[in-house]
């Protein structure tokens, strides 16, 4: 019997790289488009609009949507100076939480380390540093998730 792939939910602010990461994982052409609504990708990924994290009144929608996921994936843009994730953000989901730093190809090593710290403070237990453009770190993430 084939094991069912774990379903992940990608949470992060607008332009963090959630949709681009989905495209990379699915070997699609990388093309930016603004995610307006929750998107289910290949029945294994839930891509959420950044506004769901950025606007407090949408955060309940993230909680409800996350019930359909097995793993919470917090996505942090390495080039961003701050974070939208409050400390211990993972505790509201009661599910395994991992972090993904995106845009590592555009960031300095110091920026990558800062992004990792933001994700650690938010409660990510394991962190992957990725670039959807170069592919850096994506295979490691997919192996961890059991997608490869």
Structure notes:
This is Ethanolamine utilization protein similar to PduV. One of its GO terms (molecular function) is ATP binding. Belongs to the EutP/PduV family. It is a single chain. Strand 5, helix 4 and strand 6 form a beta-alpha-beta unit. A 6-stranded mixed β-sheet has the order 2-3-1-4-5-6, with helices on both faces. The protein has about 150 residues and is α/β, with parallel strands linked by helices. The protein starts with 7 loop residues before the first strand and ends with a helix. The radius of gyration is 14 Å and the shape is globular. The protein contains 5 helices and 6 strands; from the N terminus they run βαββααββαβα.
Give the helices and strands, then pairings:
Blueprint: E1 8-11, H1 18-25, E2 39-41, E3 45-47, H2 51-54, H3 59-66, E4 71-77, E5 97-102, H4 109-122, E6 126-129, H5 138-145
Parallel strand pairs: 1-3, 1-4, 4-5, 5-6
Antiparallel strand pairs: 2-3
Keywords: Nucleotide-binding
GO molecular function: ATP binding
Protein name: Ethanolamine utilization protein similar to PduV
Fraction in beta strands: 15-25%
Shape: globular
> Count of DSSP E strands?
6
Corresponding CATH architecture = 3-Layer(aba) Sandwich
CATH top level assignment: Alpha Beta
Largest beta sheet: strand ordering: 2-3-1-4-5-6
Following the backbone from N to C, one meets helices and strands in this order, namely EHEEHHEEHEH
* Helical segment count: 5
Q: Radius of gyration from the CA trace?
A: 14 Å
The CATH topology turns out to be Rossmann fold
Mean pLDDT: 92
List unreliable stretches of 5+ residues.
none
Percent of residues in helical segments? 25-40%
GO molecular function: ATP binding
InterPro entries: EutP_PduV, P-loop_NTPase
GO biological process, one term: biogenic amine metabolic process
Protein name: Ethanolamine utilization protein similar to PduV
